[in-house]
Amino acid sequence: MAWGGGWGGGAMFAGRGSGSGLPFGGIPSELADEAAKLLASEPAREPSSIRFHQRPRESEAQSLTLVRMLREHPRLVVYGSLLVIGTSLLLQTGPLLTEYAINNGMLAGHHSVSVVMACATLYLVLAVLSAYGQRVQATVTGTLASRIMHDLRIRVFTHFQRLSLDFFSDEKAGVLMSRMTSDIENLQQLIQDGISSFALQGLTMIVITAVLFSLDVTLATWTVLLVVPLLVIFSIWFHRASEAGYLLSRDRIANVLADLSESLYGIRVVTAHNRQRRNITNHRHVVGAYRDANFFTGRVNAVYGPATIMIGVLGQALLLGIGGDMVVRHQLSLGALVAFFLYLNRFFQPIQLLVQQYSSLQQGRSSVIRLRELLATTPSVDESDDALELATIEGRLTFEHVSFGYDPQRPVLEDVNLEIAPGESVAFVGPTGAGKSTLAKLANRFYDPTAGRVLVDGVDVRTVTLRSLRSQLGVVPQEPFLFAGSIRHNLRFGRAGITDAEIDEAVEVVGLGELIARLPDGLDTVVHERGQTLSSGERQLLALARAFLARPRVLILDEATSSLDLRSETIIEHALDRLLEGRSAILIAHRLTTAQRADRIVVIDDGGIREVGTPAELVARSGAYAAMYHAWLASGGRDATR
Questions:
Q1: pTM score, two decimals?
Q2: Does domain 61-375 have CATH number 1.20.1560.10?
């Protein structure tokens, strides 16, 4: 096996051609110089400084706003602002040069080709400078947007890691994906293009207004009185209407992604039950609702855009009449009138550009609102400010008068009392929905009891850090999850610093040798998303090996043998003897073969504990377990104690 996965590229190339997985033989001498140059050009990779804390830092706890995001990068914001100001001033020098050229180089008594040529040359130079300034500005805003989005994606993803299981049970995965994709992309577009455009056009309007008043106070006053009030009224209406429309649009696209995600993950069930037509019909309704939301925002834009253009056209017509009369009366020079109208066109041009950019602004604002709501969500299971590090435990688990319900109105457990001694294995048996897995989730503090306490070595689990607690409790779920990557990567997931020798030991203990031997690349075989290329039994074996490598003090097996055939179950039973050695364990089992390997069996039903004892004691009592035991034998089950 080539390099054990440490050099993935070397193993990959070695596996080609020969198929024997030869180790990487080094860089050929004729390529050594070029390879050295390539490595020298690579940026230095600093060690990761990322640290996860269950309690968010002060900066992470603050409400998400655009201003706070920009404030994290002051240098780029200041640099970009200066470029916006400089570019705006350069862009507005053209009409003044035109006025000067007309009045001093074109009118009777002032014919001067040199003046006209000088103005034209200066006009060209300033245009080139403004174009260069806009290019640099685009680079700066692009850099600013990419850095803010990088930080925001990490912040949102980190927040996902803090949230409790009930949040992910209530929220659709597609909705959460939309927050990380379309919402953040909208925000990136706003920061990269929208803000700079708004700043540039807004500053342009201010500069032009000042220039208009300097050219002629009367015409400038008429402009402000005729145009600005109508534009303000329409803009207020557009802001309110479009904000509602874009918020609705964000929710509808989230539903589209949620439905798509669910359909893709369940494609096997869809195909097996011939649900294709119904799924298409349902998705058409979801997409149609998103289309309707877009239609609404489109209608709002269709009213606002033409209305502002019409206001500008009518205003210019009226001002042309007023200005022309002033020229005839010699109250205004022709050059000043031409310059005034050049600036007036530029006054309306930013308004029209702002109308086009306003949609981007509203979409960005809607995305900020949705992301702010997400980041404001607090985990239902959280650490206290004075949470302590849990020392290495012996493994004593105590449930004191524990009650719990996923729905507070419908309790699953009521007044449960149980103690598991260090090194003792206890099996939970009972009907589906009785609360077996719920007790295990309370022990690992996936949820907190609504009443009572859960103690580990006499310490209330709510008083210690989640990391120190869960690092000593291992869980093998009923449906094991494998990540996309190699089998070696998945086995190392439970604990850092696992060596190849430890992995080889786990493979032997759990009985993975036959599986690994028939895979094309052994431990370096890549499994697809969620481990779909492996059978459910093979995934369960890998999950058990991962738990073995995590070295937990307490092990929770939730139906760990439910997906295995008889032969694999026999292998697992022998593996469990090694896996449970010296550890406290909770075995949640429907198969009594697994339950009988425990030191004690706890029968759970109707929200409480009905019986507790060794397998032999419970059979002798002729109670609930005895009935389950005889039914198990009658259905072909075997007694593991014989």
A1: 0.67
A2: yes
